[in-house]
């Protein structure tokens, strides 16, 4: 019991530290008027995963911000932080910390859990349907009112865990297009449900080029993307665009829109002149990797010896580990014209 209490105290200390350095964005929505809700996976999670299980709570995660592991799957800030910064809003606290940091609930909540998908995956955490259940229960409990929801925004991150799980479960290549259609269909149900709860503006991220993740480029020494996976990603994004268009037509609104993470990644990878943000010598190479396939960033052996290598400067790398961007990588994505243009839709009625 004492150990559990101490762990909780340490966790709260880490979390408060992580929430103390939010960045500033453009002039815009007032903090007291708008709530920001987040659903999804590790590209958006800011600390929901359990400390004992998640790599995001292990060193060297968090070394850039807040300077220690704090539950983000990066060396620092992730997509949620940059979007909140753009809105001049506080980063919403993780759902699991809503009681310990009750004073922050008024700004919204982050329901995203690393490793999850729209369907169940091998990660022992709530899928997106259950994440939305959490918000619905809070509404029933009068934590949020109808007027709170009418002036709120939501960001939905579905970054490929369903597809990783499909592959891990030996799903067939021939069945992949049908499974992609099923994923987008369920994602559409989720978007419609968030809207039905009263949220008036909902951004959903397009799928990044999964074939360019370090876990898929390692075999080419981080030089070449895997084209088959990227072709499947394109199908997902085409279906998602159709779904969002249909949702807006069905609701006679402009409530739903896509944050173009996919083309923002490509802009950074291609390092075009139009991109004035951070540039990287080899954007496909990660900063932190396991010493072998049996280990990953943050791994240690039974003697506590680290089993990973770490680059000297995370700011020089786009990818942090085998799946996730660095803080500087997310900053580069956020800085691209295509992503900035996507964000502007938050202001449109």
UniProtKB/TrEMBL annotation:
Keyword Lipid metabolism set for record: yes
CDD domains, alphabetized: SGNH_plant_lipase_like
InterPro entries xref list: GDSL, SGNH_hydro_sf, SGNH_plant_lipase-like
Gene3D superfamilies: SGNH hydrolase
Signal peptide span: 1-18
Coiled coil: none
UniProt keyword terms in alphabetical order: Hydrolase, Lipid degradation, Lipid metabolism, Signal
Family membership noted in the UniProt record: Belongs to the 'GDSL' lipolytic enzyme family.
Protein name in the entry: GDSL esterase/lipase
């Amino acid at each position: 019991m004492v150990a559990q209490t101490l762990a909780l105290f340490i966790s709260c200390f880490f979390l408060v530290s992580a929430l103390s350095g939010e960045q500033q964005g453009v002039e815009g929505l007032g903090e007291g008027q708008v709530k920001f809700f987040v659903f999804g996976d590790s590209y958006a999670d800011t600390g929901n995963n359990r400390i004992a299980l998640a790599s995001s709570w292990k060193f060297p995660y968090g070394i850039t911000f807040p300077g220690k592991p704090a539950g983000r799957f990066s060396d620092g800030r992730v997509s949620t932080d940059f979007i909140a910064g753009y809105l001049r809003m506080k980063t919403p606290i993780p759902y699991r910390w809503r009681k310990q940091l009750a004073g922050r609930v008024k700004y919204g909540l982050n329901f995203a859990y690393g490793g999850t998908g729209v369907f169940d995956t091998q990660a022992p955490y709530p899928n997106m349907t259950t994440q939305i259940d959490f918000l619905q229960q809070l509404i029933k409990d009068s934590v949020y009112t109808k007027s709170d929801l009418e002036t709120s925004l939501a960001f939905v991150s579905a970054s490929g865990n369903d597809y990783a799980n499909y592959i891990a479960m030996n799903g067939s290549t021939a069945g992949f297009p049908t499974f992609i259609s099923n994923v987008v269909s369920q994602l559409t149900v989720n978007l419609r449900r968030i809207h039905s709860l009263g949220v008036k503006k909902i951004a959903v991220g397009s799928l990044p080029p999964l074939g360019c993740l370090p876990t898929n480029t390692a075999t080419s020494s981080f030089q070449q993307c895997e084209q088959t996976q990227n072709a499947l990603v394109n199908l997902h994004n085409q279906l998602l665009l159709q779904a969002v268009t249909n949702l807006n037509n069905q609701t006679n609104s402009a409530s739903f829109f896509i944050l173009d993470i996919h083309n923002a990644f490509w802009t950074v990878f291609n390092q075009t002149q139009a991109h004035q943000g951070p540039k990287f010598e080899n954007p496909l190479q990660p900063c932190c990797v396991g010493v072998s396939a049996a280990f990953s960033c943050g791994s240690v052996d039974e003697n506590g010896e680290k089993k990973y290598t770490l680059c000297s400067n995370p700011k020089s790398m786009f990818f942090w580990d085998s799946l996730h961007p660095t803080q500087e990588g997310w900053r580069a994505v956020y800085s691209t014209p295509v992503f900035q243009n996507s964000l502007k839709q938050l202001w449109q009625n």
